[in-house]
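Issue: ligand-bound run for manganese (III) ion - logging full I/O for the record.

Environment: standard queue, default settings, no custom constraints.

Inputs:
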Amino acid sequence: MKHMLPLLPYDYAALEPHIDAQTMTLHHDQHHASYVANLNSALEKYPELHDRTALWLLLNLSKVPQTARTAVRNNAGGHVNHSLFWRAMSPAASGAPAGPLADAIKRDFGSFEQFKVRFAEAGAKVFGSGWVWLARAQQDGGRLQVDTTSGHDNPLMQGRFPILVNDVWEHAYYLKHENRRGDYLKGWWAVANWEEAARRFERSDHSAAQAWEGEGGLVAAPPVPRSRVVLRA
Ligand code: MN3
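Outputs:
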């Protein structure tokens, strides 16, 4: 099994003006594609790992031979996180969560506004390359929390389930915002996909293992029909 680059679920320009088409094109077609290619290449010599999903590899690094472990951690992580990230945004974003997720955010952060401040502050403080997450603890009554990870690590590696994610690597914003990561974080709310977050929140209401059984499909999901995606010549 070769790991495959999923298609974007919308046009490269669909998140304009908040995220520009050139950034989306480079980010998906070059950055994400390179993680997939490098993951396949890192696994070439290890046929016993060829049937494993990227998520399985990330969560079972101790079973990956040491010579390939760092490459697998970085590139399986890059593949899993970007696959989540494309779906964490939508051109038809509602602007705010609804239903049980909205209630849980109010319970755990005080208000939606307070959550947004916490998320943006945490994202701004990530040193170097990393990610900012809304994640759900498996213990502690399934509390929501803001997490940050370095490189391409994922909260699941600490047993927390990702609900919403933003990429704060410079490649996610530098063309449009240069060094102003705070501007990117502020504008990003306009495309945050609360419908997807609500689906993930609902799915997280189980043990981590159960929740992630459905997640294998995330990375290996069949691509959306090409007619929905404008491909460059
Ligand atoms: Mn990225």
